[in-house]
Amino acid sequence: MYDVEYTPQAIQDLKYFPKHDQKEILDNINIQLSYEPTVETRNRKPMRPNSFAEWELRVGKFRVLYNVLEKVTIVEIQRIGEKQRNQFFFRGQQEEL
């Protein structure tokens, strides 16, 4: 079982969303990333090289970007945002990966 940790930036990203969206995102993080976070699935995939994270979890229109520290079994949530087409939005602002 993996522990899930959040960067300060990810916590701020999460606070941007309404409470019901926060609950949906957090529930999916716990379900999807507690076990085998590096196994590719329909909602979990490795990302192209970027400055944020190695993996992406899809939660509806939301995206959770994360890294996995295998030696200490920690999933480190880097960012939480929305994806519209090929663009990521964090706290309502578009950012390039």
Describe this structure in words.
By secondary structure, the protein is of the alpha+beta class. The protein has a single domain, classed as YaeB-like fold (2-Layer Sandwich), CATH 3.30.2310. It has 2 helices and 7 strands, in the order βααββββββ. Strand 2 and strand 3 form a beta hairpin. The protein is globular. The mean pLDDT is 93.
What features would you highlight for this structure?
2 helices; 24% helix; seven-stranded mixed sheet; 97 residues
In short:
With 97 residues, the chain is α+β, with helices and mostly antiparallel strands.
Write the layout of secondary structure elements.
Layout: E1 3-6, H1 8-15, H2 19-33, E2 44-46, E3 55-59, E4 62-69, E5 74-84, E6 87-90, E7 93-95
Parallel strand pairs: 1-5
Antiparallel strand pairs: 2-3, 3-4, 4-5, 5-6, 6-7
Text of the CATH class: Alpha Beta
Molecular shape: globular
**Strand coverage percent:** 35-45%
Count of runs of 4 or more consecutive helical residues: 2
| H/E element order | EHHEEEEEE
Judging by the overall fold, what is the CATH architecture? 2-Layer Sandwich
Rg (C-alpha, Å): 12 Å
Main beta-sheet strand count, sense and barrel state: 7 strands, mixed
How many domains make up the coordinates? 1
Task: Give the termini distance in whole angstroms.
Answer: 29 Å
What is the CATH topology assignment? Answer: YaeB-like fold
Instruction: Assign the CATH superfamily.
Output: RelE-like
List low-confidence stretches.
none
Query: Could you estimate the helical fraction of the residues in percent?
Result: 10-25%
Q: State mean pLDDT (0 to 100 scale).
A: 93
Structural category is alpha+beta
Number of strands: 7
